[in-house]
Amino acid sequence: MPTDRASGSESAAVGPGARSDARSGADAEHKNPFLVALGERVRALRSRRGLTRKAVALAADVSERHLANLEHGTGNASILVLLQVTGALQCTLAELIGDVTTSSPEWLLIRELLEHCEESTLRKVRIAVGEILGTGAGKVARNPRVALIGLRGAGKSTLGQMLADELGFPFVELSRETEKFAGCSVSEIQALYGMNAYRRYERRALEEAIRIYPEAVIATPGGLVSDAATFNVLLTHCTTVWLQADAEDHMKRVTAQGDLRPMAASKEAMADLQRILAGRAAFYSKADLQLDTSAQPLELTFHALRDLVRQAIALPA
């Protein structure tokens, strides 16, 4: 049976893995570009908020497999029907689903003006809008209320306490203040009431800290930047400093604290952490100042932070 032997030999040469790769390549070629882009946005949002796929699936009350399909650009053909309708109506998907920025002619005109602007232009617009609305977003003098932002393990608590002691300012650990508002721990807030409730408590805690302290050093939770409204409040009322660190240093420092949230149940903790960093970097970069806490030992890093802040808020040396 030479033919059978030849077929067997060819099957062995191709193998299950090779056939799987071929199928994956073929699937990739037939994926709808809109669904692929949608999946990428879902992944980016999940990373920015520091959530595992399992956590999002539980919160959304969908299966983890369904969410995985969504993130990989498959299994969500129903949204394509909406996309076809937008084409027929010559409108955007945002208009169809009722996004607030499509709710009036002025919103639509503003969207059209800004749609293709570069990031630097959008920043100027945001500051100009802040001045018009009186939010102080276009402040010239730096605020003596200093807020440290960045991922867990960047050194916000350690350096923040040292900086507050040096400047004679109160030190505010925003996560602790959030717990006071809620009357329970951060993990309990999220477990009992969900992430949206946690973000509401977090904003109330920030607004209260701003009301109470004209001068302070505030250490913020890493995920605060994922809520645009709260982040706007922070940028408006504080001199912000992004404490950066290498992914390896983030992991070592957090592990030393005995805390791996939200990667505790993940077998790919480092990859998860790097995705979170990538997802939030564009937001962290909006800070007034930046400092790499991996570049030198703690004492030298503190001196660099102290000098950076003193110069920024015009304090005497």
Radius of gyration, Cα only, in angstroms?
A: 24 Å
Please state how the strands of the largest beta sheet are arranged side by side: 2-3-1-4-5
How much helix is in the residues? Answer: 55-70%
Order of helices and strands: HHHHHHHHEHEHHHEHEHHEH
Alpha plus pi helix count: 16
| Category by helix and strand content | alpha/beta
What number is the mean pLDDT? 82
CATH fold annotation of the domain at 141-312: Rossmann fold
Give the C-level CATH assignment of the domain at 141-312. Answer: Alpha Beta
Tell me the major beta sheet. 5 strands, parallel
Shape: globular
- Low-confidence residue ranges: 1-24
Determine the N-to-C terminus distance: 91 Å
In short:
The protein has 317 residues and is of the alpha/beta class.
Q: Can you tell me about this structure?
A:
The chain has 317 residues and is of the alpha/beta class. Among the domains are: 78-116, no CATH class; 141-312, Rossmann fold, CATH 3.40.50. The chain contains 16 helices and five strands. Strands 2-3-1-4-5 form a five-stranded parallel beta sheet, sandwiched between helices. The longest helix is centred in the N-terminal third of the chain and has 29 residues, at 2-30. It starts with a helix and ends in a 5-residue tail after the last helix. 25% of the residues are buried. The model is unreliable at 1-24 (pLDDT under 50).
